[in-house]
Amino acid sequence: MKTLVMIDDDSFFLEQYTDYFKSLYKVYTASDSGRGMALVKKYKPDVVLLDIRLKGDNEGLDTLREIKQTFPEIICIMVTNLDSHSIYMEALNRGADDFFIKSDNVDILQEKITCLLESHKRLPAAQTPFVAVSDKTRKLFKLAATASRSVSNVVIYGETGTGKEVVARFIHENSNRSDKPFVAVNCAAIQDGLFESAFFGHEKGSFTGAIKQHKGFLEEAHGGTLFLDELEDLSPRGQGALLRVIQEKTFERVGSTTSLTADVRFIVALKTDLRQLVDQGRFREDLYYRLAVFTLQTPPLRERREDILPLIRFYLKELNAGNKQLSKSSENIVLSYAWKGNLRELRNVIERAAHMAPGSMIHPQHLSLNASDGFSESYKEARERHLQEFREKYYSEALLRNNGNVSKTAEEIGVSRQTLQNFLAGLKSSK
């Protein structure tokens, strides 16, 4: 029998969940981090359920770090009463395998535990698909590896060409669904009137032109992952149908009354912040909460320049041109170029240059880059961007330490309450 340790200062939670889990696991409980760590060291449990806000602060996050540093193989699920995306992301950054909101049905928690136990049993350590040299890319794939061990749906944001589908495939291939299909769908290519047929399938004769039975995307992806790209283009009708499938986990082919099981995990990708679409009335809020459990951001190439030269070497090998290399002047050019098309543009440029270069050296004329297409930002722009990134990180960490209390945070970091509020308002308006 597997061992479960629960660390929570909520006695009611411990009592209720002990009753639920005692027939499934050997259960041990503690009401503070000290006793909890003692149980973890003594029993080396398979799973730990850990309250984020022990003693009203974020002590649970410190306990999580200690557990993962000492016993990285232990599955840690953070539990909380708060539905806070920033706290979830902080927990994932510190090594949490998943999280659970106490107001949700305990059966959902048991499903998460079962899936994580199965994943840890079957999967080797997650492998990054190709290049992750920069801190931003390493962080992205660390979070993606955590998402792969979860049963929850995933939203991936990023500009065109930043590798959103690569991340989605990485999550699928490192999940317990890896031996089942990965089906990629471009929502922008689906006409509104054909949504049901495309997603649910149809029976022969169900409408004019339906000359044979057709399986939709949900059946094609059965047991696996359904990747929905450009979700911002999904019509209101499609949003309603998708929500119904996620909630009921069943669907019917067009022209049929037989219910089929929808056993898929959804990973969706967008160029636009989904929360912003909800605020604009362009996306259903109830569907947003069903999808945005894990959220990941693929950084543009201009923010991960350390990856550019390793990526080029990777692409040259992929193109069977591993004997070719960039001259020093070519390296300077590619490192300063803006790469508005991101990875897609970079690969296209390198593939063309590899064909154009007659020898082993790729010179600037072989890159065929146009200066008017945009090179790197000015010194002033770069300085302001780095300052903004620093402020966001510094203020966010301070807010987390102070449980989101703006007044306490402002006092701690030495700015006025109004300055901090203005900064937070600016972040919301930019998303």
Descriptive report:
It is globular, with a radius of gyration of 24 Å. It folds into four domains: 3-122, Rossmann fold (3-Layer(aba) Sandwich); 135-298, 3-Layer(aba) Sandwich (Rossmann fold), CATH 3.40.50.300; 302-373, Helicase, Ruva Protein, domain 3 (Orthogonal Bundle); 379-430, Orthogonal Bundle (Arc Repressor Mutant, subunit A), CATH 1.10.10. α6 (135-148) packs across α7 (164-173), α13 (308-318) packs across α15 and α17 crosses α18 (406-413). The chain has a five-stranded parallel sheet, sandwiched between helices. The model has no long low-confidence stretch (mean pLDDT 85). β3 (47-51), α3 and β4 (75-80) form a beta-alpha-beta unit. It has helices at 11-21, 33-43, 59-70, 85-93, 106-122, 135-148, 164-173, 195-200, 217-220, 236-248, 274-279, 285-291, 308-318, 328-336, 342-356, 364-367, 379-401, 406-413, 417-430, and strands at residues 3-7, 26-30, 47-51, 75-80, 98-101, 154-158, 182-186, 201-202, 214-215, 225-229, 250-251, 260-261, 265-270, 294-298, 325-326, 361-362. The protein is built from 19 helices and 16 strands. The chain is α/β, with parallel strands linked by helices.
